Amino acid sequence: MKGPFIFFCISGLFGIISAVEGIWVISLFLLYLFILGIFKKTPSKWLILNSIIYFSYFLIGDYTVMNNKTNLLPQTSELIVQFSDEVKINGDRLRAVVKDTKTKEKLLLTYKIPSDVEKKLLQQNSLLKYTCPIQGKLVVPDTARNENAFNYREFLKQKHIFWELQVSEWQIGNCRQAQLTFIDKIKNWRFQGITLIEKHFTKDTAPLAAALIFGTRDLLSEEQVSAYQKLGVIHLISISGLHVALLVGMIFYLGIRMGIVREKLSWALIMILPLYAVLSGATPSVNRSVLMTMMILSANQLKFSFKFRSIDGLCLSFLLLTIWNPIVIFDIGFQLTYIVTLSLLLSLRIVSRYSSYVGKMTITSYISQASALPFLLYYFFEIPLLSIIANIFFIPLYSFLFLPGLIILFLIQFVSIDVFQMLSIVLSYIIDFSNRIAIWVSSMPRSRLIPGRPSALFLIIYFGCILLAFYRWEKRKYLLLIVLPWVIVCSQLFLPNISSKGEVAFIDVGQGDSILIKLPYNRGNYLIDTGGTITFSSEEWKEKKQKFEVGQDVLIPYLKGKGIATLDLLILTHGDMDHIGGSLSLLKEIKVKKILMPYVTSGKSAVESKIEKIARKQNIEISYVYEGVSWKAHESKFIILAPSKNYMGDKNDGSIVLSAHIAGVSWLFTGDLGKEGEELLIKNYPNLTINVLKVGHHGSKNSTSENFIRHYNPEYSIISVGEKNGFGHPHPEVLRILESSKSIILRTDLNGGISYKFSSKGGTFFKVIP
Amino acid sequence: MFRGWFDCNYCLICHDRIESTLSWVDLFVPEQKEVVCYECLTKLERIEGVKCQICMRSFLKLDAYYQKGELCFDCYRWEEEPNYKGILTQNYSLYSYNQFLKELIAKYKYRGDYVLAKIFASEIEKKIKEMKPNYIIPIPLSEERIYERGFNQAEALILEAGFQSTNILTRIHSEKQSKKSRTDRIHLPQVFHTTAQVTGKVMIIDDIYTTGSTLRHAARVLKGIGANEIISITIARG
Questions:
Q1: Where is the Phosphoribosyltransferase domain (chain B) (predicted)?
Q2: Which of A26, A38, A423, A522 makes the best surface tag, with the fewest CB within 10 Å?
């Protein structure tokens, strides 16, 4: 048989998925066997072997899933843990993967470093294999709090981690280092290597050197990472198969120049490659390429009577890595490295038709991007348009200049400081230049398409179309079909225009408000407030490199996940940070057509002025609205009930109050409206209907008077409030008032994102956390 | 058992190891024993584009003067002749007769490399299954040629494709076709002879279609003994 391994891989994959998702997946596997037998005319002995593989992987998967559970008691507070090499320090926070010495269970340790001195100590010394008694509490890691959001709990679970250990007491002096194994020593070299880079390299060369030599992105700034991601060249700053191939190539070239025989070099490489995998962080892509290269080199050396192809190596490495840890198949890096490498290897015939270098590069980039398309959309909701051009430009730059250059630079620091400094200046200059280009190009508007996360049906269509496109491309028939995947992207982009589905979503932005109104048939996407992260200035050493900011980290991914690239209206109810702070990053990434702000004459907050400035720069119309302003969008009606024109007074009572009639439901969005404002509403609009009330001011005791609730009697009351917020929101008195009026209370702190989804047939409320 | 996993085949044409790359198409189509490497396969040119509806002559590089509607000038002239009108309804040629194929066929029939018939077997098999003839008849060789070559190249194609060959035509020995002009060929006295009877759809197999006279002469004989429709397959279209 020509390539049995690829079919074994698919069978194994079905086996693992059956173990994780449920045994019903076996029906898909049987369908697959049926197709193999009938259409591909695979002989029955192969079908039997495929079934055996399916069941073996099912059993392995099942065993892993069954055992993937915690053995620790939740109330455990004293532990003796051993550190691994996964330690990250971000500002005054330390996160490390540790192992409980009693149960051998892995935990995620988080520690607030008390002093600058201790931070330096922790930064300069590897914690690997240190065993420390620690007091703290076990906390369940965060789950996803919004639709399509990253589920940290699941992510950790795939790494066999179930608890976050929040340290309360840790005497670093009481730690003892255990015996280091050979592998541990290499891990320590890695630590020392990264420390050396941080110490000696310039600010431009250090992050890239750490990324390309030791496979860590920790030194890279968020701006850089996001620029590379937007350009679709993120794979260049993680160690990938390309790097391994280049390194092997370089060693071969140098070795042969030095007069070493090819055979000896091959064996030497086979020995060194696993060490290199450890040295560079053992990410899935490194493991994949190292394992694959080792197998191919060995096969060549052993001179088999048959030809061992790269694709066989790829498939065997898949079968091996999934035996080791079956649930690694859910890792993004693992999925991408396998799908792209497989597609490229299957396309060798297509690529060989193009003779020019540029032609080959273009085709290769196209194939990588097309095959990764469904994965990119699923995880990142968007696709970079400039990726192919960016790859043609950046791949040679990284492969032939930065990678060898930085390795040489790293080695030279041990030889001659003068040469090091000279070379360092040159490289800094070029890297800085290339970074600037990357950031500049990636910040160009319209450089990405944002179709959002595809539904299961769309995913199936994507995979089908990609297979069909490549099949036809190879057959040289209907060549135009190679653009088929992009046609699907376009149809996904177009879908909202013909969809009768809409929603009103209370996004969980922690302490703050942010409400998305998505009207059916693309008749309007409105966002009321954006949430906002309040930052406190602190000492320099406490400053985090990767800061959490709700606009960037929650709101933008949420909108992208829904495929929203343009907001027709951004309604900013009033100037408080927790309502409008997220706008600053939102305006950078999402196109806003018009901003509504309250028509108030009392002073503006600093954020408000900043937003006005950005809006002016981007030519976004700002409309200052007041009581009586109203508009319609087909059947939906919107009317602003407050503030009165030229309102002066308390900022919260000057919030925009919006009454909306959407899908037969009457909504009242109140911002931070206080009791005084509520009284005014009763006075001015005694006959107003409210089916769903966005409870004012996160349930503060200054809002939601008994009178107000009694008067309007909302069926649903939604409180947008942060989990464990410092203000004591929502106030028990408010909850009592709402309960006594029999209003159904939904809270973002308990339920995560809350969304009313509707279509022409009616709607229901959905909660992310049930 | 494991040996079969990586069977290593050598190309029948260039004798290099066939680098069996696994590609997108291989994922879907049934496995076939590869006899020719990918490079050699690409040198065999299929006849694509607009072509004569009878003889498959490509119109791509043909002067408009030699095109008569859907037919080429040659076939048009054959159809003008009352004796030959409608005698051959459709010829299918696998490849165009380029230099590469010319050498390949020479090696096959003149130098007796019988195994090369396997190169065309799967394509011919596919076509025969598609056309469903009642009889598959090879163009015969004279006794003298058979003695020289040791096998009939047309019959070998049928056998390698896995079908039964109906050898009912015999040939009165004559000069080689390749030494004659077109007029010579058309106005040749009948060179084929038979004593059998056939019915329905009959397929003739030959190695090369040059002017179509051999096939048409054979077809005429077959028509005379009861064939309804006569079609043909050749490796090459000259």
A1: 153-236
A2: A38
Please, which residues have CB within 8 angstroms of residue A428's CB and are 6 or more apart in sequence?
A202, A204, A205
Q: How confident is the model at residue A581 (pLDDT cuts 50, 70, 90)?
A: very high
**Helix, strand, or coil (residue A268):** helix
CA nearest to A315 within chain B: B22
CB pairs under 8 A between A and B: 65
Q: How far apart are CA A723 and CA B199, in angstroms?
A: 89
| pLDDT at residue A517 greater than cutoff 60 | yes
Contact B5 A311 (CB under 8 A): no
Cβ <8 Å between B20 and A471:
no
Residues in chain A with CB shorter than 8 Å from the CB of B10 are none
| Neighboring chain B residues of A40 at a CB cutoff of 8 Å | 28-31
Q: Is the pLDDT of residue A685 over 60?
A: yes
**pLDDT tens digits along A632-683:** 998 899 999 989 888 888 888 899 999 999 999 999 999 999 999 999 999 9
A residues 415..434 contacting B (CB < 8 A): none
Exposed / middle / buried, residue A46 (Cβ in 10 Å: 0-12, 13-18, 19+): buried
Which part of chain A is CATH 2.40.50? 78-179
Quick check: A474 and B17 CB within 8 A? no
Q: What pLDDT, on the 0 to 100 scale, is given for residue A42?
A: 84
What are the φ/ψ torsions at residue A150 (nearest 5 degrees)?
-65, 130
Start-to-end C-alpha separation, chain A: 50
Cβ distance B24 to A40 less than 8 Å, yes or no, reads no
A46/B contact by beta carbon, under 8 A: no
pTM of the entire structure?
A: 0.85
CATH of domain A499-767: 3.60.15.10
Interchain proximity A1–B22, CB inside 8 Å: no
Q: State whether CATH 2.160.20 applies to domain A78-179.
A: no
Residues of chain A with CATH 3.60.15.10: 499-767
Q: What distance in Å separates residue A240's CA from the closest CA in chain B? A: 23
Domains in chain B, ordered, with CATH? Answer: 5-40 (no CATH), 50-237 (3.40.50)
pLDDT value at A606 more than 80: yes
Contact A306 B6 (CB under 8 A): yes
User: What is the C-alpha separation between A768 and B1, in angstroms, rounded?
Assistant: 53
- pLDDT-derived band at A448 (thresholds 50, 70, 90) equals confident
pLDDT, residue A237, reads 85
Q: Is the CB of residue A475 less than 8 Å away from at least one CB of chain B?
A: yes
Q: Distance from B62 to chain A by nearest Cα, in Å? A: 24
Least confident of A455-464, A513-522, A530-539, A578-587: A530-539
B173: pLDDT confidence band, cut at 50, 70 and 90? low
Q: Is A571 left (phi over 0), alpha (psi -120 to 50) or beta?
A: beta
Cβ count within 10 A of residue A377: 24
CA angle A18, A23, A28 (to 5 degrees): 70
Distance CA A361, CA A508 (A): 43
What backbone phi and psi angles, to 5 degrees, belong to A398? Answer: -75, -40
What is the C-alpha to C-alpha distance for residues A113 and A719, in angstroms, rounded to an integer? 34
Q: pLDDT for A551-574, tens place per residue?
A: 999 999 999 999 999 999 999 999
What percent of chain A is predicted at pLDDT more than 70?
A: 99
> Is A599 touching B (CB cutoff 8 A)?
no
What mean pLDDT do residues B170-185 have? 69
Decide if A304 touches B, using CB distance below 8 A. Answer: yes
CB contact residues (below 8 A), chain A span 335-354, against chain B: 345-350
Nearest CB to A349 within list B17, B21, B30? B21
**% of chain A exceeding 90 in pLDDT:** 71
Predicted local confidence at residue B1, as pLDDT: 45
